[in-house]
Amino acid sequence: MEDSKVLYEIMLCADGVSRAVPFINGNKIDPSIGKVEQEEKEQEEMKPKKVISIQDRIINQVETFISAIESKVDDFVDNDFKSNYDCYQHLLDMGCKSIHARKMRQLYLNCFNDLVDVYNGEDEYLNEAWGHLKPQYHKKMMDFYGVIVDDIDRLIKNSTAQRKPRKVKTKSSSRLINKLKYQVEFNKLKLVSINPEKIIGAKELWVYNTKSNKLGVYYAQNSIRGFSVKGCTIQHFDEESSIQKTARKPKDALGSLTKRSLNKKLKEMKTKDQILTGRINAQTILLGAF
Length: 290
What we know:
Blueprint: H1 2-7, E1 8-12, E2 18-24, E3 27-28, H2 31-46, H3 54-78, H4 87-93, H5 98-120, H6 124-129, H7 135-162, H8 171-177, E4 185-186, E5 191-192, E6 204-209, E7 214-219, E8 228-230, E9 233-235, E10 243-246, H9 250-253, H10 259-268, E11 274-275, E12 284-289
Antiparallel strand pairs: 1-2, 2-3, 4-5, 6-7, 6-12, 7-10, 8-9, 10-11
Helix pairs in contact: 3-5, 4-7, 5-7
């Protein structure tokens, strides 16, 4: 009897009922407390969990990328406006995709345009805001932001180039290019090959040989049928009009990969016209198919 009195004692519980309750570590425990705690736990579990939307997730990632770039801008200023910063490779290493780059582009385009106005002395407000820097540094900052914008544009363009065509290709097209050997990417000039399926049926194909520095263009014999591919060879191209030239300044020649720009750069080259064989190899970047 003495032991049972030590273990249990009559008390008034929280629900107003008198009952025998246990002692734990010398304290009387109201059993109704556990019931309340269990109910609170169940209610907490029933609350809907906060789900981060895809758009919010993308915005958070964009803010991370911007923070990383701004850190490089600060380094550029701290290092007396000298830097070998490669924004394109930096963004790729962080996993930046075209969807992120598009959201960042306007911010850095605005920064570049603001510095153009400062450099030209066209905006009093901006002149005052950037007045703490000497005029010679205005141009360096302008050029730095210009490189960032160019690299963001290149990332967007290259991501789009790798995307499969919206129109579903037939199985025969996939089979035609499955043995085609080409260079997927050339980091030195920040070039990325298009999806080779785009060659099938195209009327014009631009290529660049990274080993010989030759820029070439293939024209289809028939504008309706377009090109085909057999193994590693382009089929149905016009051998007379299709030419290539050595690009002495490849970075300048391949600064813009639009059809109009490529035609202009090829015509401006002073090197001799050379015939194209139709062969595509592991040193060939597929610049564009139109």
